[in-house]
Amino acid sequence: MINTSPQLPSTVFSRPHPRCCHGRLPVPELPARSCQMPRRKEVPALSSLCLQSLAQHMQSIWVKDYSENYLDEYQFRFVMGPFNDLAGSLVQDLIRLLAESRRLTRAALHLLLLPHLRELSLQPCPSLTSNAIGQLVTLRCKNLSSLDLHGCSRLSVDVLVDLAEGLPQLSRLGLAETQANVQVLSAVGSCCQRLQELDVSHCKKVSPRALRYLGYDPLAQSLCCPMLRILLARGLEPSGDGGMVAALAFLLLALPRLEFLAHSAVPDALHLLHGWQLHSTGDAEGFPSLEELTQGRGAAPGGPQLTLPLRRVEEVEEPALATIHAICPQVEEAGVWLGDNPGPAGGWELLCWGHLARLTLGCAGREGRVLAEVLPLAQSLGPRLQTLALHGFCCRDELSLAALLASCPNLQAFSTELHPPTDTDPDGEIPDEPSRWDTNLLPRGLPQLQSFSLTLVSTTGTFLARHGLALRATLASLLCHAPRLRTLRLLSVPFPLDSVFETVLAAPGSPLLELQELSLAESWVSSRTVWLLLASDSCLRRLDLSHCRDIHRRDYDSFLQAVRKQRLDLDITWE
């Protein structure tokens, strides 16, 4: 031990007479409004200042003596010093701060691996995480409940085994992109009985057989990891003989509390179990068969139906929805790929999930699906949905987005990527541009919405003017009736957005008060909107103006000058 010191209804827009603006779009008159700047830079908390001071003087004061006299001479079980008095969470913050500022050294890490640490992440410093550091973690940090070794590929298999065997209180373990193999997962399965979350993604040495050790201990002839809820196994090499599908089916049966298994072959494993194709997989020597595990769950062909406690499924193709719904009736979050076939998006099976709250729909076909097809689904699930993401849909009906949002009043996060219809007539009648948007298109609004993202992809066609009117009316109404919105992304919008923000920022009730992050990358917006935002009463911290064609270098320099002059806590990006 060492001691160191369609035709748009008239109700969508209001149309007062626009005033002339030298050929540009009409600009609405703004009523007088008392505004404040976005949040000024706050005085850092005392704890933050102390940690910054420690980080700044770490090498010259705290580490110097230890580096010169002890680092390579002794292997100390404990180090007594000033860092023992820091709360474990502050020690972890100090490690992160040192790593981010590139001040973290091997000696500093030696001093900060302390017994009272409950959580430790070495992901910020993989180059420093050697076998010696791994041994120190095993020796000193016996109270760890969370350990993240993501990317720490220098740790050998033996050290990883020692960590699993020496830290039995772990509830979270990150082994992504490490040398983890069958020996490591065997140690994890037999020793980490409190483990609830495990990440073995992109581990090149993890085989299908190695995964089985997380569910069964052949030496003890007993199931293991009874508390495991989340297993991330993305990017593992699939075996050509179907061994990965069989191994995933094994885990789905052997882990009684598994809520999420992340691997692209999980839908295939669920299809195998639902179809009782248990004899065609071949069973790994020393492990129980799939039939035995199925019987252990009280299911049998022609008898009680097999169901699993999965709460989240992803990468499910539309034809497999009936199977997934039957075997996983408690799903709360789903990611589904849709083909080009017409019909209600997701089918009736999806509508039957009584607990579904988070949904992602993606169009995998070449043509995509029409956004209006999602409306029956939204009307059925809408009140329950908290998160909705729609990608690759065609916006044929210009009012379909507004109708969709109106059907989901409790959304907390919404994201969509829309394509223009391919059968549009660009020479059709162009409606007049209103000078101010009617904000009653979504009268109930979305009071819980915190994140909204809209991307318009025009590589396959062109959005018509009537689409632009409807979309901007929808945005104006949404932004006026989403009081908790914190993140807003309007990407590649080919219609002028200035009038939308002018309407919103002039509306009663001070909308966008909680907005912290705004991205307008590649959208049609001018410097006028930015100045309105800078003069608004908001909490804006990040503003992305990348590739906005009407924002120029002189505008960007003026924005930065205003931010510096007003001492605003605002980061503006432009290129």
In short:
This protein is α/β, with parallel strands linked by helices. Helices cover 31% and strands 14% of the residues. The protein has a ten-stranded parallel sheet with strand order 12-13-14-15-16-18-19-20-21-22, with helices on one face. A six-stranded parallel sheet has the order 4-5-6-7-10-11.
Which helices and strands appear, and what pairs or packs with what?
Blueprint: E1 2-3, E2 13-14, H1 46-56, H2 58-69, E3 79-80, H3 88-100, H4 106-112, E4 119-121, H5 131-140, E5 146-148, H6 157-166, E6 172-174, H7 182-191, E7 197-199, H8 208-212, E8 216-217, E9 222-223, E10 230-232, H9 243-254, E11 260-262, H10 266-274, H11 290-296, E12 312-317, H12 321-327, E13 333-338, H13 347-351, E14 358-363, H14 375-381, E15 387-394, H15 400-406, E16 413-419, E17 436-437, E18 451-456, H16 465-480, E19 487-491, H17 498-505, E20 517-519, H18 527-534, E21 542-544, H19 553-566, E22 571-573
Parallel strand pairs: 1-3, 4-5, 5-6, 6-7, 7-10, 10-11, 12-13, 13-14, 14-15, 15-16, 16-18, 18-19, 19-20, 20-21, 21-22
Antiparallel strand pairs: 2-17, 8-9
Helix pairs in contact: 1-2, 1-3, 5-6, 6-7, 9-10, 10-12, 16-17, 17-18
